[in-house]
Amino acid sequence: MHFRWVVFGLPLAALMALGSYRPSAPEIHTRPLVIVFSSEVNGYITPCGCSKPMVGGMPRRGTLLRQLAERYTLLRLENGDLTKASGRQDELKAETLIEMLNQMGYDALNLGKYDFLLGMDYLRVLQQQFKGAMLCGNVQEGGKPAFDAYTLVERPHNGRTLRAVIVGLISERHAEAVRRRNPQLTITPALQKLDELRPHIETQGDLRVLLFYGSEQEAEQIAQAHPYFHLIVYANAGDGPMPPKQVGQTRLVFAGNDAKFVGIAYLSEDAPYAIARVEHTRLTEAFKDDEQILALKLAYLARVEAENLLASVPRRPTPNGSGFAGSRACMPCHVEDYRIWQRTAHAKAMQTLINEKHDKDPECVVCHVVGLEYEGGFQSVEKTPQLKDVGCESCHGPAKLHAQDPEKHRLGKAGPQSCMTCHVPAHSPGFDFETYWKKIEHGFKPASGSR
Ligand code: HEC
Ligand code: HEC
Ligand code: HEC
Ligand code: HEC
Fold this sequence. Notes:
Elements: H1 2-9, H2 12-18, E1 33-39, H3 58-69, E2 73-79, H4 88-104, E3 108-110, H5 120-129, E4 133-135, E5 139-141, E6 144-145, E7 150-157, E8 160-170, H6 175-181, E9 185-187, H7 190-201, E10 207-213, H8 216-225, E11 231-233, E12 242-247, E13 250-254, E14 261-267, E15 275-282, H9 291-306, H10 335-342, H11 349-355, H12 362-368, H13 392-396, H14 400-404, H15 433-440
Parallel strand pairs: 1-2, 2-3, 3-4, 8-10, 10-11, 11-13
Antiparallel strand pairs: 1-14, 5-6, 5-9, 7-8, 12-13, 14-15
The structure holds heme C (HEC) (4 copies).
């Protein structure tokens, strides 16, 4: 076998110097096989870190997989939706995620409905880049399959060579979503496609896995009609793992989305093979970032900066027709409010992003500054320093006219709803107006003499 050649072809000392010689680890060919699986990264290369403790991220996944690979032979499978939207930033994310999957040695990637938002031309580019098999067998272009329906992988398992068939399909329920961006594509119902594939896969290999971009219910129907799969990884079931379900000899599994968990399916020792047990590992702080995966993330952020995506955020006119003045412009008349604001977390929200190296990332900056989505709002720390951080006008609205003539241009109430553009559950799960307001409470009469 190729790998053994490499191991025995190098002197022991050289191996030890390379750090790849670990006397305690079982030899490659005697290790048991495990299948690692997950669905729908949805663009979460890493979690945003807005609330603690933060869970998930590809750099942590890299570490988990590296640890597992010391004791097991891995089959690495990903199911659908690397990203969740179209646009340049999602293209950069998708490319980065493909590189990360390559780095971690992924064998197969099935496509989901959001992947198709990137368009077929772009998916072809990603397919070229991906070292594993990009699957989605029931999508046709011009009457021909647009992607492979399955791939065959050989792996050692307890001293034997095990052959695995990995099939990838998408639910026909997503046909409309897929065709909105790609009207030339058609989708054959998954069950119908499997009827076609059955003679080719039913008796192939020792292990058969289906990556299915569809619901648990549909996966169950498949397991009943096509009972020769050992494992079906499904999708669209939320951000946490679901309890595995046994249907005949098939185990239906889902490890949650947003790259928070990794599913691990352990195989029985001997043929006929079966899934012995399934675990879901939550990617907590206990997993350090894998340095190579982290380097790919930093390279992605560098591209976001180099392409200056911050400058291409779509802008709309402000609701009250005023421009932005910046928090400092309020100080002369609202001295006490300004002092209070300066001591709040809002006043260092940009520094937080700088520390996280996300300060040029429009997906983060939008909530950590004043008015990114508006004409005349934040552009960059250099061009609009007065609008960095969450400022007075993040809540009170654009107030340039008010600052020039406060009597004529009143601002009205900010109210608790002004918090909700940013303190959304995904970024501020513990938000409660009463307790949060107490930490930033202000609202003094304007300084006398300013009237
Ligand atoms: C929808 C708005 C929103 C977006 C988008 C957003 N944030 Fe936040 N961020 C918040 C809010 C609100 C808080 C405060 C949460 C709380 O304390 O309840 C916060 C807090 C944080 C904190 C914690 C600060 C601390 O010291 O406690 C970090 C770090 C952070 N954000 C980084 C990011 C990064 C990185 C991104 C982009 C990947 C991002 N944020 C995108 C709204 C957002
Ligand atoms: C030139 C002095 C001055 C400046 C500068 C100024 N304000 Fe005011 N502001 C006032 C006065 C005076 C009032 C009270 C108006 C009234 O009650 O008749 C007021 C009222 C307010 C109110 C209460 C709502 C309202 O319109 O009555 C808010 C909120 C407010 N200011 C926010 C801001 C913000 C934010 C800025 C900076 C962008 C700012 N102000 C700049 C003088 C000023
Ligand atoms: C423009 C987006 C935005 C708006 C609007 C906003 N916040 Fe925030 N808020 C943030 C961000 C970002 C942070 C984290 C700042 C940091 O630490 O970097 C934050 C942090 C906070 C914190 C500190 C949390 C802590 O645990 O220390 C409080 C309190 C808070 N916000 C209250 C409010 C309230 C109350 C409102 C509405 C009246 C509001 N915020 C409106 C973005 C926003
Ligand atoms: C995180 C959101 C937020 C930020 C930032 C903020 N405010 Fe407020 N402010 C409020 C809320 C909410 C109220 C309560 C009254 C209301 O709903 O308008 C208020 C009240 C006020 C009032 C009294 C309004 C009245 O009707 O009596 C003034 C004046 C004011 N803020 C000025 C400022 C100034 C000046 C800054 C910046 C130095 C600032 N605020 C920053 C949310 C904010």
